Amino acid sequence: MAQLFFGYFAGVIALTAVLVVALRNPVYSALALLVLFFHVAGLYVTLHAEFLAAVQLIVYAGAILVLYLFVVMLLNLKQDDRYHHQWRVAAFVCVPLLLEFLVLLAGNGVAPQPSPLTAEQTAAASDNTMAIGTTLFTTYLFPFEVASLILLVAMIGAIILAKRDIGEGGQT
C-alpha cells in the first residue's frame, strides 16, 4: 500500500514539474507548482515526517508561492510564446527519470530495511514534534502573526500595483 501511495505522489510530482515548465501562462505554472508542493508534503506524510510536511506547506505553498505570484503580478507577464520550447527540454529530462522509476518499481526483490529506531525513540520523536509545535504556537505566536500580515499586505500591494498599471495603460 505504501508503494502505491509513493507511486501516486511521485507520478503527480513528475507531471506537475513538467507542467510548471511547459505551461505558457505563468499563473497556471504557479498553480501547477502549488499542486507539486502539496504532493511533496504528502510524500513527507508517508515517511511519517508530519512536521516536515507542515513546514513544506507553510513555507513553500504559503510563503514562496505567494512571493512567486507577487513577482508575476508585479511584472505583469503575459503569455510568452518565445520560450515555449521548454517542454521539450523538460520531457528530455523526465524520460530518464521515468525509466529509473519503472526500474525501481520492477525491482521488487529488494527487501525493505527495518527502522533503526526503537519504540522509545519513536515516542520521544513524536513528543519532540509536539514540543516544537507547542513552542511555535505559544512563545512564537506573535512573529507568525506578523509574518502573515506582512504577506497579506504584500499580496494586496501587488494587486493594487497591477490594477493601477492596467488602468493607466488602458486610458492612454
Fold and architecture overview:
This protein is mostly helical and 172 residues long. 81% of the residues lie in helices and 0% in strands. The chain contains 6 helices and no strands. The chain has helices at 2-22, 26-46, 50-75, 86-106, 119-138, 141-171. Helix 1 runs antiparallel to helix 2, helix 2 packs antiparallel against helix 3 and helix 3 (50-75) runs parallel beside helix 6. The longest helix is centred in the last third of the chain and has 31 residues, at 141-171. The radius of gyration is 21 Å and the shape is flat. The mean pLDDT is 77.
Summarize the structure.
The protein is mainly alpha-helical and 172 residues long.
Strand content: under 5%
Helix content: over 70%
End-to-end gap = 61 Å
Q: Low-confidence spans: pLDDT under 50, at least 5 residues?
A: none
Secondary structure category: mainly alpha
What spatial form do the alpha-carbon principal axes imply? Answer: flat
Give helix and strand order, one letter per element, not per position. HHHHHH
Mean pLDDT: 77
User: Helix segment count?
Assistant: 6
Number of separate strands: 0
Radius of gyration: 21 Å
Give a quick account of the main beta sheet: strands, pairing sense, barrel closure: none
